[in-house]
Amino acid sequence: MTYLHRLQPGQDVNLAEMPTRGKSFYEGDKETAVTEFKAARDKLIELQNRFYAEGKRKLLIVLQAMDAGGKDGTIRNVLRGVNPQGVRVYSFKVPSKEELAHDFLWRIHQVAPPTGMIHVFNRSHYEDVLVVRVHDIVPETVWRPRYTQINQFEKLLHDTGTTILKFYLHISPEAQKERFQARLDDTSKHWKFSLEDLEKRKFWDDYMAAYEEMLEQCTTPWAPWHVIPADQKWYRNLAVTNIIVNTLQQLDPQYPTTTDDLSEVVIA
Ligand code: AMP
Ligand code: MG
After folding, report:
1. Positive or negative, the Cα torsion across 22, 26, 31, 36?
2. What is the second-level CATH architecture of the domain 15-251?
3. Which residue's CA is the closest to the ligand 1 atom numbered 23?
4. pLDDT digits over 122-147, tens only?
5. Which of 66, 90, 93, 206 to mutate to test the pocket of ligand 1 (most atoms within 8 A of CB)?
């Protein structure tokens, strides 16, 4: 699944042609997928433990999606059971006055992962070429150079020991409608709904155009984007977990060895 959904640098992206349902990528049924997902998550837990203990490398996971695209659910499901000491989640909201007084990467760089840590971005610096572009918050002369600025920033992180994985959770407008309705129908989900979400929904096509250009411009050898079919949560969870596991397996983190000889130690 790692390479199935990974974009190649220079690749044209047409989201309307890319499936939002995982069924076409997966032979088994939902039940099999859930079993596989849980086994993959157990591997993730073990690898994260090693990664944290080793304390040498850094992993950054970026999640982007339309509203109700499943960012929160992905985090909740995929990271369940990891050692919380070694994982942090950062959610990026409308920038504060202080954040706006700095360059757009200032608030991001402050929370880039240090050694041994996995940091997950729930939204990210990519909002600055998405929502900002679609709603004309800044002019094109300001947001367009950001593709290059982002690529250079991510290169800096990469060159200083950070592995970067970026996921775009691809949902259909129909799935978004269903999920919005579910939020409206359940008072315990009202806090997740805002009238602004409906305003943004009207700009669906503009968002898709912004996402496409972002995916084309910011897929680099050092920070690849993955387009994950995300209408079906069971497939999304499985695909994202497999990609993270595969990446950690390649990094092959090792428990630190001690130079002390422990074989003769007796505890009094
Ligand atoms: P949520 O993720 O549902 O809590 O919503 C956070 C909101 O903050 C979304 O509407 C984002 O589009 C918005 N947001 C995040 N980053 C930025 C940014 N750099 N500029 C403007 N709006 C942003
Ligand atoms: Mg929201």
Report:
1. negative
2. 3-Layer(aba) Sandwich (3.40)
3. 94
4. 999 999 999 999 999 999 999 999 99
5. 93
